[in-house]
Amino acid sequence: MRVGFERLVAANGIAGAYLELDGSALPPLTLGAGTLRRRPGASRTGLIVLPLDADGGRIHLGRLVADAGLVGDDRARLAAVRQATRAIELAIEAVWARAEARRSAQRTAALDAATRAIAGELDSEAVLQLIVDRVRDLADAEYAALGIVDQEGQIDGFITSGIGVHERESIGALPRGRGLLGLIIREGRSYLVPDISADARHSGFPPGHPAMHAFIGVPVSVRGRSVGNLYLTNRRGGRPFTTADLELVEAFARHAGIAIDNARLHERIGQLAIVEERERIGRDLHDGIIQGIYAVALSLEEVAEIVESAPDEARARVDRGIEALNLTIRDIRNFIFGLRPELLEQAGLLGGLAALADEFRLNTLVEVELDVIESEGFEPAEPVTRELLAIAREALGNVARHARATRATITVRAAADGHTLAVSDNGVGFSVSRAMVPGHQGLRNMRERAASLGGALEIQSAPGLGARIIVTVKPPERGEPDAGRDPSS
Fold first, then answer.
1. What is the fold of 121-268?
2. Which of 12, 187, 334, 401 is the most buried (most CB within 10 A)?
3. What are the CA-CA distances from residue 45 to residues 41, 62, 70, 76, 150 (Å)?
4. CA 414 to chain centre
5. Angle between the 311-338 and 348-364 helix axes, to the nearest 10 degrees?
6. Adjacent-strand bridge partners of 471
């Protein structure tokens, strides 16, 4: 580079030149040629100082100092030197343009990776920290923070990146939103400040706070509503942030707002599901178990009064109460079983069925056997495993709630030519024709799950003869997607 610069200077008839580059996208560089191999002092005369800019003057790249070798008032010579230095400026601007294009491509790829990362996180706290960590790397900043604001515009959460735990503790309470932080909250627009510590709008730092200078502040909003603000300080290498850095953070902030909103929505949906489940549990307990216990209490209220006058009746009431409470205990165990639908699906079909059988045996006191006819080490696809486990769980739930059985059997055959799952019991059975009328949600759910796999569900039962639920899933035809799998995936 030095040789090339010297040739460029000589070819343009310049006695000497000194180049200083310190602009965006280019590494810091100093080069000297001819009579200016070293940086000229302030007392040196006869020099032309040319600021080097790019992008129509928006980007400062550095400066070029030229020794025109003037003797007297040689205006023609001065014009020639100025024209030559302009040629050098254009050459440097072309180098900058190539470097900026490479950097822009890298930043676009980094932005894409960062937005993909935060879009995939649905935990509210985790996504906030991930946003701060990602934007700090994206802008090459030493410190980053995300201030979450409430409806009154007050900061009620402050997530940081780049500051250690002990350093954070020594700073103390959350920022109050004064100075530039408060200005961004109130005005809802971005700020790019060369040195925050020298800015008149800065309200100062508390004791123990690290020194901060270069600053970017960008609001984070979604659907026109502010959810917080991103703050970045101290670009690595001691260089100031640029407008390109600001635009990059603004682009990321738009995705961050969506990610925060999605995580909060996911959390609210989960909370609604919990509320609905609590209401369902309350209804089931009140309509069944609690009513049964209340009936026992009523039947025992007068036992103390009739124990002497009608001892046989008192004894009979106590016996009936004990029997009713035993049935209630059974119902509670069955109810607990219904509250635990999760299985270790990652253990595969056989592992999941074994876990289901153990749980059913523990919570219902019904003896259950897992009978594997054939497996050949074959494991169904994950969607098939998930639906078969759900069908087995639903079938066993029906056994627990309705069959009054003492024994149940889970029979499974998993092979390359198809899968068969059967759940049978020795309970009271039922009329299959009556079970097919509307209102039997469990049987309908099992039938729909089997159909989603391209399979079929068969129900075998009669009053007093127990019941058997059989689901058969055939492998997909050649060229068709796997059962239970989205053909577009």
1. Beta-Lactamase (3.30.450)
2. 334
3. 9, 20, 10, 19, 61
4. 35
5. 160
6. 421, 457
Provide the β-strand partners of residue 411.
Answer: 371, 422
Tokens at 201, concatenated:
């709008």
* Cα separation, 155 vs 267, whole angstroms: 21
pTM over 0.85: no
C-alpha distances (whole Å) from 290 to each of 64, 90, 134, 287, 323 are 89, 87, 53, 7, 15
Distance, in Å, from the CA atom of 415 to the CA atom of 376, rounded to the nearest integer, reads 7
Reading the block at residue 121, the tokens are: 């996180």
Residue 147, number of CB atoms within 10 A of its CB: 24
Domain 342-473 has CATH 3.30.565.10: yes
Which residues, other chains included, contact 458 with Cβ-Cβ below 8 Å and sequence gap of 6+?
469, 470, 471, 472
State which amino acid sits at residue 415.
A
pLDDT tens per residue, range 14-50? 888 898 887 666 778 898 988 898 898 877 877 888 8
Assigned token pair, 48? 């032309």
Token pair 């700020």 is found at: 191
Tokens of 209: 């706070």
Residue 392: Cβ within 10 Å count: 26
How remote is the C-alpha of 266 from its chain's centroid? 10
**Confidence class of residue 247 from pLDDT cuts 50, 70 and 90?**
very high
